[in-house]
Design a protein that fits this description.
The chain is an alpha/beta fold and 275 residues long. It has 9 helices and 13 strands. Helix content is 27%, strand content 35%.
Length: 275
């Protein structure tokens, strides 16, 4: 039975109009949006969802947007007594707690796509590394050396646990700190720079350009409305020109809907020349 069909027995037609049919699953945790109009039915809705999905043990209700320096949302526990779980993705396992760290299960395909483009022996820099999904996906199957920077200390703790969980010790060096403080301390350049920021990666494109080799690749993610998705490569090209760099766009595509009229978009580009 479908979620909405199951709720028809308990909600009025007007109440059903406010039900969000989609939800995100992290391991055995489901994250749902329940509007204020259904406040008095939130437990009923959560129980219905759990009954229809036997692999789900915990239900969290999203109560606030992803904000702040650490890009973490706020949640209310409707069912269960924990917020930590294990997610499986592309042969990897990730310990995660959405109340403490940022992680999107929706990006599993994209992480595999990036991994497939990487060659052995690449020296890679990952900015905004989070709990390590990009570096660990890559290190699991490629012979690479990765430097990863993350500002959230709790994310770094999970990252370290995930390195052990996936047995990729020795391939990833984690740096805890703000990239504006930490990047100047790194004197070498890299074959590739990954920029999977939850938001505003474009604000750090100059720092990324300064750390990639000429001929190297940058993979950058941003957020755009549907009308402006096709403009993203041009925006990246113009921004690079401002800093004296010529680039070649390899590809750009949307990575799925992230909210009403908002899409995540990726742009892969090669750095051809610099100032």
């Amino acid at each position: 039975m479908k979620f909405i069909d199951a709720l028809k027995e308990h909600l009025t037609e007007d109440e059903l109009k406010h039900v969000n049919k989609s939800f995100e699953v992290l391991g055995d945790i489901a994250i749902i949006d329940i509007p204020e109009e259904l406040e008095n039915k939130k437990i009923l809705i959560a129980k219905t969802l759990k009954d229809l999905n036997k692999h789900i043990n915990i239900i969290l209700r999203k109560t606030g947007d992803i904000t702040g320096t650490y890009r973490v949302g706020t949640y209310e526990t409707l069912i269960g007594d924990r917020t930590e779980t294990i997610c499986k993705e592309n042969g990897c396992r990730f310990k995660v707690d959405p109340t403490k760290t940022y992680f999107s299960s929706k990006m599993g395909y994209e992480r595999q796509r990036i991994t497939d483009t990487i060659k052995d022996k690449e020296n890679i820099l990952c900015l905004f590394a989070g709990i390590g999904p990009y570096p660990i996906n890559i290190a699991k199957t490629k012979d690479v050396n990765i430097t990863a920077i993350e500002i959230n200390p709790e994310s770094v703790d999970f990252f370290k646990d995930n390195i052990k969980l996936n047995k990729v010790e020795g391939k990833i060096n984690i740096i805890l700190g703000d990239i504006t403080d930490e990047l100047p301390k790194i004197k070498k350049t890299f074959d590739r720079v990954l920029m999977p920021a939850p938001k505003d990666a474009e604000n750090f494109i100059k720092e990324a350009l300064e750390k990639v080799k000429i001929g190297g690749i940058i993979n950058i993610y941003g957020f755009k409305t549907q009308e402006k998705l096709k403009e993203y490569p041009t925006e990246i090209t113009e921004k690079c020109k401002e800093f004296g760099y010529e680039i070649e766009i390899i590809m750009s595509r949307d990575c799925g809907n992230m909210g009403p009229y908002c899409y995540r978009v990726v742009c892969d580009f090669k750095v051809l020349s610099g100032p």
